[in-house]
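Sample entry (170 residues):
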Amino acid sequence: MATADDRHEPAAAASAPDQVPPAGAGLHALAVQLRRMNGEINRLVHGFAGDQGLHATDVQALAAILDAEEPMTPKRLREHLGLTSGAVTACIDRLERAGHIRRVRENADRRVVHLYYAADARAAARTYFRPLAKAADAARSRFTEEELSVVLRFLAAMNDELAPLRSAGA
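Predicted structure, serialized as tokens:
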């Protein structure tokens, strides 16, 4: 998190909702915008969790299952969320009872369990988060393909930098 010592320009320069930070904006302006976006997304996630009778962590689990490049396992989900095995089991149980996921045992090794996002639940989430998708599409339309490429590279680099902090317990 940027602190007062990290500021390179006045906080007001980047905090107005309709104001675009100046080119070359410093760490503080970037941190402000990332926190604002994170807060708005968290507000949506908490609303979805409340509507579905879930915990915010359950929604994080759903996102991890949805975004996984290969079938998610309880162990990988536990590592991703930083939960104990008991806590991730309780999370998976809640999600399964609520109809959001399915547990499927692997045919070759019945001890291996894969977690899949249930189709009906995926449709409900898509409906709930449609305003977020529309907002992202509207924001995206303001940028060229080249600019979006840079934004995606930045977000990927941020995730690469943050991932070791999660595993280090920071």
